[in-house]
Amino acid sequence: MERLEKLYEGKAKILYTTADPDLIIQYFKDDASAFNGVKKGTIIDKGVMNNHVSSRIFQYLEGEGVETHFVETLNDREMLVKKLDIIPVEVVLRNVAAGSLCKRLGIEE
């Protein structure tokens, strides 16, 4: 499937239209930020890893009967997803307490 017009670009992803008005391509970037965007950088292949992890999570959810917008993994950096109205929820997963979580909870990093 071919990327057409850029719909949106955020910190971690770029969304593109496709020839099918109900489907979009989600491209995962290597950009990283910390401290609410104060510190920015690039992590090589971060987008590749995020695409693979996200694909696995969506496939697991679908297998458990939870509907998602996931259609298929296109390549290392892109997945095909259904176009939808987003619910503004952000999920941050970490192996250790860090960043704003430590600040909010008053614990050491």
Note down, in words, how this protein is organized:
This protein has 109 residues and is α+β, with helices and mostly antiparallel strands. It has one domain (6-105): Phosphorylase Kinase, domain 1. 22% of the residues lie in helices and 29% in strands. It contains two helices and seven strands. The strands form two sheets. The chain has a five-stranded antiparallel β-sheet with strand order 1-2-3-7-6. A two-stranded antiparallel sheet has the order 4-5. It is globular. The termini are far apart.
Overview features:
single chain, 109 residues, alpha+beta, Phosphorylase Kinase, domain 1, five-stranded antiparallel sheet, phosphoribosylaminoimidazolesuccinocarboxamide synthase, SAICAR_synt/ADE2_N
* Structural class category: alpha+beta
The CATH class: Alpha Beta
C-alpha Rg (nearest Å): 16 Å
Helicity level, as a percent range? Answer: 10-25%
Largest beta sheet: what is the strand line-up?
A: 1-2-3-7-6
Largest sheet: 5 strands, antiparallel
Number of domains: 1
Name of the CATH superfamily: Phosphorylase Kinase, domain 1
- Unreliable spans: none
Average pLDDT score:
91
Give the overall silhouette. Answer: globular
SS elements, strand count: 7
Number of helices: 2
Proportion in β-strands: 25-35%
Level-2 CATH architecture: 2-Layer Sandwich
CATH topology: Phosphorylase Kinase, domain 1
Series of H and E elements: EEEEEHEEH
Protein name: phosphoribosylaminoimidazolesuccinocarboxamide synthase
GO molecular function: ATP binding; phosphoribosylaminoimidazolesuccinocarboxamide synthase activity
Domain SAICAR synthetase/ADE2 N-terminal: 6-109
Pfam family, one: SAICAR_synt
